[in-house]
Amino acid sequence: MSAGAPYVGRFAPSPTGPLHAGSLVAALASWLDARAHGGQWLVRIEDVDTPRCVPGADTLILQQLATCGLYPDAPPLWQSHRGDRYQAALDRLIAQGTAYGCACTRSDIARANAELGRIKPRHGDLVYPGTCRPDHTGLRGRAPRAWRVSVPQGAAGHWLWVDRRLGPQSQQLDEAVGDFVVRRADGLWAYQLAVVVDDAEQGITDVVRGEDLADNTPRQMWLQQQLGWPHPRYLHTPLVMGDNGEKLSKQNGAAALALDDPLDALRRAGAVLGLSAVAGGTVSEWLGAAIPAWRARLACWASSAPRAETIA
Asked: Which positions fall inside the Glutamyl/glutaminyl-tRNA synthetase class Ib catalytic domain (predicted)?
């Protein structure tokens, strides 16, 4: 983030269904952060994964946000309309030797990892072993199925950054993720590239999103660095957990957000963010009172979390 840059934040839901309680927490936090900084709040519909998108869900999500008094400051942006911008970014990465074609199937990757003694984690993917890297075996005459970005190895791959809520964070990028996909074998754009392109072109200075996405940050910062774009600041919010102890999500059957009483929904979301004491008899009154309460919450996080300088 450039010093003195006007604040621009965003909420970026995937239209795979209506908002649920967890997604309202992220939406509310991003809106409050923008308002607390006197900035702009945008909404971006992240619909590049078209097979998972539900027809009409984007319209429903915008209606749900409006019911809760969360109105964007500019017309929403749809990722599905922006393939040319993602292609331009990929072309740059290919030209500078950062991106390369990959011919591996999932079974190829699983087999290579098995030979290395690696086991797939319960929540996550196997680390790509680098088979098709130009400095490894390359494509060996095979046609590329997907495009990957090479990540730095060893000490250069030890990524450090500071989260505005969580404090100093680190990830050994090559060991935790490996070279990651930016265009999938089915021709669809991967989330990591699309979000980086859109954040840069929309001038996003601050990303506020759920804590489950924190481990995406090094990949996105690496892409930002390779494309010559500034890093936004990041703040990852607490998660809403389901009865089974897992993060509440559409994938594990989270119920659609009940908005017959939007004020109650906001209060519940606010409680997750530590704003239980906020009072207000209407949606607008509650939101107005929540803005200074959010500023106080930010000050609390800033004073309690240890700080570290980023080397990214």
From this structure: 10-256
For residue 28, the surrounding DSSP H or E stretch is: helix 21-36
Compute the mean pLDDT over every residue in the chain, rounded to the nearest whole number: 89
The binding site for ATP comprises 250
Cα 280 to the center of its chain, rounded Å? 31
Rounded distance between C-alpha atoms, residue 149 and residue 94, angstroms: 9
pLDDT band for 312, please (50, 70, 90 cuts): very low
Residues tagged in the binding site annotation: 10-14, 46, 102, 104, 128, 132, 191, 209, 250
pLDDT tens figures, 255-304 = 778 899 999 999 999 999 999 999 999 999 999 999 999 999 999 888 77
- From CA 198, how far away is CA 86, in angstroms rounded? 9
Whole-angstrom Cα Rg for the chain: 20
Binding residues for L-glutamate: 10-14, 46, 191, 209
Q: Residue 266's closest CA among 60, 76, 40, 19? A: 19
Closest by CA position to 69, among listed 311, 230, 280, 272: 280
Query: What's the predicted TM-score (pTM) here?
Result: 0.89
Binding site for Zn(2+), by residue number, is 102, 104, 128, 132
Binning pLDDT at 50, 70 and 90, where does residue 246 land? low
Q: What is the pLDDT of residue 144?
A: 87
pLDDT of residue 308: 45
Residue 200's CB: how many other CB atoms inside 10 A? Answer: 18
Distance CA 48, CA 66 (A): 23
Listed by start position, the domains of the chain span 8-75+240-304, 83-183
Task: Classify domain 8-75+240-304 by CATH architecture.
Answer: 3-Layer(aba) Sandwich (3.40)
